[in-house]
Fold this protein.
Amino acid sequence: MTTNYDSFQNSTDDDVVLKVDCLKQHFSSGYGKKKVVVKAVDGISFQIKKGETYGLVGESGCGKTTTGRSIIRLYKPTGGNVWFNGELISGNLTSEQKLRVTQGIQMIFQDPISSLNPRMTVKEIIGEGMIINKLVKSDEELTQKVIEMLRIVGLSDDHISRYPHEFSGGQRQRIGIARVLISNPSLIIADEPISALDVSIQAQVLNLLNDLKKKMGLTLLFIAHDLSVVKYFSDYVGVMYNGKIVECGKPGTIFANPLHPYTKALISAIPIPDPAFERGRTYLSYDGSRFGCAPGNYDLRLISDDHFVYGTEEEHQEFLAEYEARKDLIK
Amino acid sequence: MDREKILEVKDLTITFHTYAGRVQAVRNVSFDLYKGETLAIVGESGSGKSVTNKAIIGILAPTAVVESGSILYKGTNLLDKSEKQWEKIRGNDISMIFQDPMSSLNPLMKVGKQISEVYRLKHKMSGSEAKAKTIKLMKDVGIPEPEKRYEQYPFHFSGGMRQRIVIAIALASDPNILICDEPTTALDVTIQAQVLKLIEDMEDMRDLSTIFITHDLGVVAHVADRIAVMYAGKIVEYGLAEEIFYNPQHPYTWSLMSSMPDMDIEDEEELYVIQGTPPNMLHPPVGDAFAERNPYALKLDYEQEPPLFKVSDTHYAATWLLHPKSPKMELPATLVRRIETGKARRRELGNDN
Ligand SMILES: Nc1ncnc2c1ncn2[C@@H]1O[C@H](COP(=O)(O)OP(=O)(O)OP(=O)(O)O)[C@@H](O)[C@H]1O
Ligand SMILES: Nc1ncnc2c1ncn2[C@@H]1O[C@H](COP(=O)(O)OP(=O)(O)OP(=O)(O)O)[C@@H](O)[C@H]1O
Ligand SMILES: [Mg+2]
Ligand SMILES: [Mg+2]
């Protein structure tokens, strides 16, 4: 019997800000013959300790956004539990508890346009949370705070009275980030916060988040598909495929020694900023049709330290063998 | 390069009339697009990449004013077209994949239908033929179970899946010019690879010309034949992909190339950041717009706008550093390291030339 992730997670629980336990979110749409059931999230578990960043990466459509949205209670989960600062938040909550969740967890949304109200000015958008939660005393103070945030995210003071449609894609995303940072939440769920930004602003936002991590002990669930960013930025990484976490561990471990075939494909397909190298290059691809089809029980099983890979007992032995064979080469 | 030009943008200047004043979004932009090539446009957020390309496909916001310039396609100026003529061009000649997928999908129409309409209307196919083609294309862009997904609505799809539908619609219309505005930023690298391959195949098969806007320099390296770098509404450097990556000349290009995180970066290393804020385009700075953020700025940069200096027949850059009387500058260390790594990698691969 090998150790699985669930038992690992249950053995360590001090300082845990967010704990997700066997979360499931299934959607159905259409009727009769045209009915489609999508198991967007299908039994995932992970936890994030105070001050840590958990990077969630994976194939487009594998359930990353749905995970974030289920945590902030935009959907009622099909199964599983979510704890925030030790409090179960996935069931029915009192209005006091709900307030704690909405103030404590903020989400930066993936889609910068549809998440900004087109009829509000930048000041109103960014300041909204401050006003609702009565965190500022005067309008001047609000203006001051908003300007401060605008500078932090690389926008300029004169943007304060403009409307969302007057901005470029990347500028809109930064407005969304400023809105979240201003209210100082204890957990931020950042859903691809930087993929719409140019590299220099990316660097600026990443350095900013890193800074806040150090200074304020910011805890982050960082959803992304850019692996180099996740490697640079996360303390722990979960790779998701088809509603499941297929591999997780410290970023260094996963990048140096990926074992699940999807993780391997993901790492091999990163384009390198070097034209001579990229020209005519073909990437490894992953054939998803065999995913989860082997006979036996699937589980997220321990390889070493805190590195886990999803598979059957038999596949696990193969992963272990591969790990053993490569371990020495890597050092 | 004596290949056939398919599009010529000349001296394009576009401003937005807002109540705060005139936003000078695009300033004197000129470039050519050749048949069958991919031109990548990179540059700072807000530098005018999307606005330039929206002008090419005739969908500028009502507050936008084209102050000057022309866009020549098949010998006529696109800027003179009526809305009716535009509709025809957009259906047949030029397609665009937008940065924000939701804005180009109809939220109330089934996803499959939005693609099959293109086959029915443009290629005059029957309903069932169009549906079969659509399902094949949905599969090609990596949508699982396309038969079932055909019946769903955009809100049932993830961000990246919506983007793939937008890509499918553009590909179905089979244009001569495809403008891709960050088509793969919402996708993971495996699906991105699949989509890039699809676009490449179309380029090979049909001599498609592509303008590719992206912030991902890895993707640029993969797709681009030529690269144009934009800053503050202007093209500050352009050249062949190799020229821009291995011999960049403009300090903004240097900064851009230095600030990307790559797989070699150490965990504790701070990422290089361009200091200061982007210029206010209501009152763009005189001289070189990048000067105040440029550690290499010369006095002249604050006074006079640099012309495009020729580096090679295919490579031009607008920086006073290229003036024969300017002092020689050392490239930033990160960039030197990257160029060296790149060259070493090239030698290793044996295609050094
Ligand atoms: N409201 C919904 N109704 C029905 N299906 C949905 C809904 N939201 C998401 N899905 C489905 O759930 C799956 C996971 O979607 P999700 O948005 O979580 O993916 P993602 O990992 O965030 O992908 P991306 O990287 O493309 O944003 C997809 O198959 C999607 O079609
Ligand atoms: N409708 C509008 N009204 C006023 N200003 C606008 C409008 N649309 C764009 N702008 C401004 O024009 C400039 C260029 O915008 P554009 O969308 O072309 O940037 P971009 O280079 O595509 O940036 P990104 O990489 O962030 O998408 C920006 O300063 C932007 O704020
Ligand atoms: Mg998503
Ligand atoms: Mg844009």
